[in-house]
Amino acid sequence: MSETLQTTDVAASDADLLGRTAIAVRAAGSALRERFGEVVRYRTREELMRALAANDEMALDILRPRLTRLRPDAGWVEDELDGGALPPGEWWVVDPAEGNVNHLHALPEWAVTATLVRDNQPVLTAVHLPLTGETYTALTGAGAYLDGRPLRVSPTADLGLSIVATSQARPDEDEKVVRRVGSSITAMLFDALVVRTAVPATLHLLNVAAGRIDAFWQFAGARADLLPGALLVTEAGGHISDAEGRPWTPQSESFLAAAPGVHAEAVATLSR
Fold it and tell me: Which positions bind Mg(2+) (predicted)?
């Protein structure tokens, strides 16, 4: 996958499929919203993991049958921590509760995502934010949208004037990755205007696509974290690569999405 994702002729069936996918993620988001609002303190990690799984299962009970009816022959990926390439053919890559930990702690930064991948290229994606009611969509070759309004990345051409963002390493991450995350944040604190550090990745990437944030980077990202945002950013006119500026694929060890005017500067900062 290069800076600009491969484009194909937009089939009417794909456009219709995107609309139906958006309906599915909204339905799952509505169910999760009903569970949102009360902060529960978990005494053990096992209790927390069970609560996370309960959210995932509720959303998947809605998403899986709806998306399977839309594409009965497509494979199914729902583990948000999985990475790497997929086998040939069509696959649904789903994060039923992106930002699940935030949901359980009554924080507003969470979403429901569904992305159709065809021969390892994201074809369409729908990301729904239940608390705001917003739905972000993208279709290869047809642009990125927020509730039907076109999205465009920032025109900023100076990293020193840029808001940039990253997600922290996941729990139990390899020490080498954790240290790389820390050093990259330090480098960006010197070069960028503002650095935001939070999870989940998808919400930062929505902001890059919408021109609110100028760049986002992450190390050791998973498919479900990055594919929806990668398609949204490229369809909104942004560039994606790994942190060294090389073409990004789901097997890459790092990820960078940026407005074209600051992409090269961001690569230089992250490569120090």
Answer: 95, 225
Annotated binding residue 79: no
Note whether residue 7 is domain-resident. Answer: no
Question: For position 99, which CATH number holds?
Answer: 3.30.540.10
On whether the CB atoms of residues 196 and 244 are closer than 8 A, the answer is no
Domain membership of residue 242 as a residue range? 159-271
| 4 lies in some domain | no
Let me know whether 49 and 95 are in one domain. Answer: yes
Total-model pTM: 0.92
Query: How does pLDDT run along the chain (272 residues), one tens digit per residue?
Result: 444 344 344 445 999 999 999 999 999 999 999 999 988 889 999 999 999 999 999 999 999 999 999 999 999 986 655 667 788 999 999 999 999 999 999 999 999 999 999 998 999 999 999 999 999 999 999 999 999 999 999 999 999 999 999 998 777 788 998 999 999 999 999 999 999 999 999 999 999 999 999 999 999 767 788 999 999 999 999 999 999 999 998 889 899 999 999 999 999 999 98
Contact 92, 74 (CB under 8 A): yes
Q: How far is CA 43 from CA 37, 51, 56, 139, in A?
A: 19, 12, 20, 43
The candidate with the shortest Cα–Cα distance to 17, out of 82, 69, 59, is: 69
| Complete edge-to-edge strand list for the sheet that includes strand 134-139 | 75-77, 90-98, 111-118, 121-129, 134-139, 143-146, 149-150
Domain count, the chain: 2
- Three-class secondary structure assignment of 258-272: ECHHHHHHHHHHHCC
The verdict on 77 and 122 lying in the same domain is: yes
